[in-house]
Specification:
This protein is of the alpha/beta class and about 475 residues long. Helices cover about 40% and strands about 20% of the residues. The strands form 3 sheets. A 6-stranded mixed β-sheet has the order 10-9-11-14-12-13, sandwiched between helices. The radius of gyration is 23 Å and the shape is globular.
């Protein structure tokens, strides 16, 4: 997503925000009070986030109450208005953690927000400074106190600044547990994915065709280290692939001229690719997110390392101020700086995802702070360039290429030192024609097929190394 295009989005959304401001009650303005101009609720199976947006920094305090379970947030210097009154209507019955929500004028200078909870939670309440189109934000994150979700465990480590910088010591047991959890979550998410429901039979048929086609490819690849087309890696274990649909939740990513959101499109493509990988008995696959939820960049990388991934693929859709820009691109991490100005800007905007999506600024992330390139990472980047070339070649069969080479820059999400990692810009969502393709289920299938073919061709010649 380009910087120039982001400015355009900010102007458009800024105009809408100004209109909303005019519609708010004027009592607070007369008294010099801060105003809440927007309220958003982002439920997910891992955690629920509420954001309250204001032109000025907010002062608050929060506490929990029991019998029944409640979270109370008092916001000082604020008057109740239409935005705050809309909170209750934004909480759905299917929210995993919130039963009801309400806001009221607690005293002349304080608004009290009360969340009636379905279960005991561990709240994270913090402020975020303005970024992109957003003003000052008060963020309320609700994490369950008890859960078997491995992603939640990573979140807890992340929030405490304790993300482990080593893979799990017992990969088989940890991976099986994580695999079962992910499959259960993905199954639930797929039930709510209307687009995927519509073309389920079509995808199954295509997956079968891919499996048959790939079986014949395996026979030809025996000389490259495959045994009957089913040898997984050099130690016989399944190849582990982590797919990372970019953005999510508060961070929509790029937005197309017809309103298509990058975060939605890339999740749909990732789910299609996931099903193709699952059709292979010698591979297993995880998603960093399987629903519309914000996941910090560091947690995405940490998940890949926890499951001992052999490959990490971050899936995105590009954007630019000039709507004629088009084509697919593939990127890898760089040791020496970006290979082009465009790659440098793209890395900068993608690395701002945590600021837009919203993370506590005092959290220290070992992965994203990693700047020391050792021999291990140098070899990892070399492998990333190999897989990137295979994917770029396949994408060139279904779409014009924006660049004919794999480009490199300092993408934070690609910084796992021991996992080959690539970032795929599937097309320009800012281009009307390519936006139409990206939202078309059949074209999404073609993208998934291209990426899948690139994966298979890479591992046919480069068996995954044993990870300990």
């Amino acid at each position: 997503m380009s910087v120039d295009f982001d400015h355009t989005r900010r102007r458009l959304i800024g105009a809408a925000t100004f209109t909303a401001l005019l519609s708010l009650t004027r009592v607070g303005h007369a008294a010099g009070a801060r105003q809440i101009v927007a309220v958003r609720v982002w439920p997910s199976s891992t955690y629920t986030r509420i954001t309250l947006e204001s032109p000025e920094p907010l002062r608050f305090k929060h506490f929990t109450m029991k019998d029944p379970e409640r979270l109370v947030v008092d916001i000082d210097g604020v008057q109740l208005n239409s935005a705050l009154k809309s909170l209750d209507g934004k909480v759905g019955d299917d929210d995993p953690y919130i039963k009801t929500a309400r806001a009221g004028q607690f005293n002349p200078t304080t608004v009290r927000v009360v969340l009636d909870l379905k279960t005991k939670i561990e709240p994270q309440v913090f402020l975020l400074p303005p970024v992109a189109e957003y003003k000052h934000r008060l963020v309320i994150d609700l994490y369950p106190s008890a859960s078997n979700d491995p992603l939640l465990a990573l979140f807890n480590d992340y929030n405490q600044g304790k993300l482990d910088d080593k893979p799990a010591k017992k990969p088989e047991k940890t991976d099986k547990h994580a695999d079962a959890q992910d499959k259960d979550k993905d199954s639930k998410a797929d039930k709510h994915d209307k687009a995927d429901k519509a073309d389920k039979s079509e995808k199954t048929e295509k997956a079968d065709k891919n499996a048959a086609r790939d079986s014949s490819k395996d026979s030809a690849d025996d000389s490259a280290g495959k045994s009957s087309g089913k040898k997984s890696s050099r130690n016989g274990r399944p190849i582990t692939i982590v797919l990372d649909p970019g953005h999510g939740g508060e961070d929509p990513g790029a937005v197309g001229p017809s309103g298509a959101k990058e975060k939605v499109v890339v999740l749909q493509i990732a789910k299609k690719l996931k099903r193709r990988i699952e059709s292979q008995s010698n591979m297993r696959v995880f998603l960093t997110r399987d629903e519309d939820v914000f996941i910090p960049l560091g947690v995405r990388v940490a998940k890949a390392r926890k499951v001992n991934a052999d490959l990490f693929i971050s899936i995105h859709a590009d954007a630019f101020i000039n709507s004629s820009a088009r084509g697919s691109s593939v990127f890898a991490l760089s040791e020496k700086g970006a290979t082009s100005t465009a790659a440098r800007y793209l890395a900068k905007t993608q690395n701002e995802a945590d600021l837009i999506g919203g993370v506590k600024l005092n959290v220290k992330d070992k992965y994203l702070a990693h700047t020391l390139f050792d021999l291990t990472q140098t070899a990892t980047i070399a492998d990333s360039l190999k897989i990137g070339k295979q994917m770029l070649r396949q994408l060139g069969e279904i779409n014009r290429l924006h660049r004919n080479e794999v480009e490199q820059a300092g993408f934070a999400v690609l910084k796992a030192p021991d996992i080959p990692s690539v970032l795929v810009e599937t097309a320009f969502i800012s281009n009307p024609a390519e936006e139409a393709k990206l939202t078309n289920s059949s074209h999404q299938d073609k993208i998934a097929d291209a990426l899948f073919d690139g994966i298979r061709q890479y591992f046919a010649k480069n068996p995954a190394l044993a990870r300990v």
